[in-house]
Structure formats: structure tokens, C-alpha cells
UniProtKB/TrEMBL annotation:
Transcription regulation recorded as keyword: no
Organism: Haloferax mucosum ATCC BAA-1512
Domain ABC transporter: 7-232
Keywords: ATP-binding, Nucleotide-binding, Transport
Protein's recorded name: ABC transporter ATP-binding protein
Keyword Amino-acid biosynthesis: no
Length: 309
């Protein structure tokens, strides 16, 4: 892998009339990273992503993707990246399989559409028209399209929209597999919880400026990182409780009724707990975390009470 950054914003400003959406943004994502791009509504995340995909020109500054100029060489860039856009509308009358065929053809790739549809869990709906897909199924379809051609960089704009808890877990597994294969992941979200569970590093954008950039572990070191995870399950079994107790980072497990586990744990262990429950054959129906400290830190950054060092 070369040392060329996967993404580089160099002093990028974007103005829409009187509104300055990005103020001299500097941001570098190295190859092989999973980078979380966080910020509240209106912070400028979509504007930054639209500039790097050449949907918008910057007012000033330069953006490169895998060493190529985002504006002058966007066609080359497209051959090497996969994108899960924020608000993708499928072609109502085409089936899931036809969407994949189209994505494979336009990338000159040789993927097997069935294998990709299976990987995202919608092979059974391959021959149904995508107009009838649920939100979560559509999101899975778009993810399959983003994986076509083993992209070097995958850009995910608010990827968990519409996914149920199992869908979010599966998406996380796929992102990690892609990263192990060598892909860089750039993941935008306004929800801290989604990003911290998976990213190596996060950048927090506010009013078009990067107000913090840190590894998740450094962010957590600034807080008291113990959290409480509440998991609604199909049934509490001795085996599932024992499985949760044996996960690294878990300090306490309690059951409330026949279908809820309350787990005290290190914030990093959340998904390992959900996976451990799943592995015992008990279904995870929903989960919720109470992580005031990290959330407080995030809101302090995004509300402007803390500024970057
Ligand atoms: N086409 C446009 N014309 C005028 N203003 C725009 C345009 N696109 C974005 N903006 C403004 O730029 C700022 C940044 O918007 P942007 O959509 O990039 O934020 P965001 O972080 O993606 O927000 P969200 O999480 O709500 O999607 C906002 O003030 C927005 O109103």
C-alpha cells in the first residue's frame, strides 16, 4: 500500500451565496483507516462529500482522492471507490439483481451479483422490483452496489439509516471485512454511537470547521468510558448470560425480566456483547446504550463548549 492519503482536503472552502458551508477545511484520511466523519445537522458533511465526489466544485482549495484530483480526475477516482450515498432512490422498476448487474457493468467488474446480494442478506429478494423494497432492504442493496469491484476506498454517508439492529450489526461486519481486505473506509454520521463502535479515528465537524480529530481511544481517555448497554432479547438463557459475562471489558450483567439484559462494560465491548448473545442462538431484538460521558463530550465539541487543542 502506498503512502498516498486516501482522502486529502487542503484548505477547502465552499460558499453558497452568503452561507459558508466549509471554512478552509484540512482533513487527511490515510489508506487502511476507518475514519468517522461526525457532525451535527448542517455542519457541512454532505458538502464535503459532494466535493470529493465531484458533485460540487469547491470555492477554494484542493481535494485529492487516492492521489487524484477530485475535480479533474473524477472518472479515474470512480473506478477505485464505492459509495453509499445518503439518500439513494432505487430505480423502482428494476430488480435488485438488475441494479447489481448495472453497477458491475458500469465498473467493468466481474463480481457475481448473487454473491453480493447474499452477502448483504437480500438474495431472497433478488428478483423483486426494488421499488417494493423496505428502507433497510434498499440500504442493503446500495451497500452491495458500493462493494462492486473491491473498491480501495468506500465512502458511506449515514449508512445505518433504515437498518434494524441486526442490519446495523451485519453492516458493521461487512465494513470490517472490507477493511481487513485493505479498503479504506470513510464513514459519515451525526450519531456518535455508530461511529465509535467501528472507527479508528474520528473528525468532528462544526460550522464547516474540523473542531476535533482524535482516535476513539483518546476520546474515551478524556471521559469515564464505562457504559451501560441494555439489550432486548428473545429470551434470557443461562448460556447467553454466561457468554456475555465472558466478554472482555464486561464488568457486570443483570437480567430484568425474561427478555432484557443490562450490561456494564467498557464502551469498546458493545458489539462483542451483541455478537456473543447472537452466537448462543438468542435473538437480539433491540439495544440501547447509556453513555453520557462520551455523548457529553461530543455535544460539548459540537455545541462549541470545547475547542480543539
Ligand atoms: N445547495 C445549497 N445551497 C445553499 N446552502 C446550502 C446548499 N447545500 C448546503 N447548504 C448549506 O451549507 C451548510 C452545510 O450543509 P450540509 O448539508 O453540508 O451539512 P451536513 O453536515 O451534511 O448536515 P446533515 O447532517 O443535516 O446532512 C448548511 O448551512 C446548509 O444550509
Amino acid at each position: 500500500m502506498s503512502n498516498t492519503p486516501a482522502i486529502q482536503f487542503d484548505d477547502v472552502t465552499k460558499q453558497f451565496g452568503d452561507v459558508t458551508a466549509l471554512h478552509g477545511l484540512d482533513l487527511t484520511v490515510e489508506q487502511g483507516e476507518i475514519y468517522g466523519f461526525l457532525g451535527p445537522n448542517g455542519a457541512g458533511k454532505s458538502t464535503a462529500i459532494n466535493i470529493l465526489l465531484d458533485f460540487l466544485p469547491p470555492t477554494a482549495g484542493d481535494v485529492t482522492v487516492l492521489g487524484h484530483d477530485a475535480q479533474a480526475e473524477s472518472a479515474t477516482i470512480r473506478e477505485h471507490i464505492g459509495v453509499l450515498p445518503d439518500a439513494f432512490r432505487p430505480y423502482e422498476r428494476l430488480t435488485g439483481r438488475q441494479h447489481l448487474d448495472f453497477a458491475i457493468e458500469s465498473k467493468n467488474a466481474d463480481d457475481d451479483p448473487e454473491e453480493l446480494l447474499d452477502r448483504v442478506g437480500i438474495l431472497g429478494a433478488a428478483d423483486r422490483k426494488a421499488g417494493g423494497y423496505s428502507k433497510g432492504m434498499t440500504q442493503r442493496l446500495v451497500l452491495a452496489m458500493a462493494l462492486v469491484g473491491n473498491p480501495e476506498l468506500i465512502i458511506l454517508d449515514e449508512p445505518s439509516t433504515g437498518l434494524d439492529p441486526n442490519g446495523a450489526l451485519e453492516m458493521r461486519e461487512i465494513i470490517l471485512e472490507e477493511n481487513r481486505r485493505g479498503a479504506t473506509i470513510f464513514f459519515s454520521s451525526h450519531i456518535l454511537e455508530q461511529v465509535e463502535a467501528i472507527c479508528d479515528r474520528v473528525g468532528i465537524l462544526r460550522d464547516g470547521r474540523l473542531v476535533a480529530e482524535n482516535s476513539i481511544s483518546d476520546l474515551q481517555a478524556q471521559t469515564n468510558s464505562e457504559s451501560v448497554l441494555t439489550v432486548a432479547v428473545s429470551a434470557v438463557t443461562d448460556e447467553s448470560v454466561a457468554a456475555v459475562q465472558s466478554v472482555d471489558g464486561v464488568t457486570n450483567v443483570q437480567t430484568t425480566g425474561a427478555d432484557e439484559l443490562v450490561v456494564k462494560l467498557d464502551a469498546n465491548s458493545k458489539f462483542s456483547v451483541l455478537e456473543a448473545i447472537d452466537a448462543t442462538g438468542v435473538e437480539v431484538r433491540d439495544f440501547d446504550t447509556d453513555e453520557e460521558s462520551l455523548e457529553d463530550l461530543f455535544s460539548a465539541y459540537t455545541n462549541g463548549k470545547v475547542t480543539a487543542e
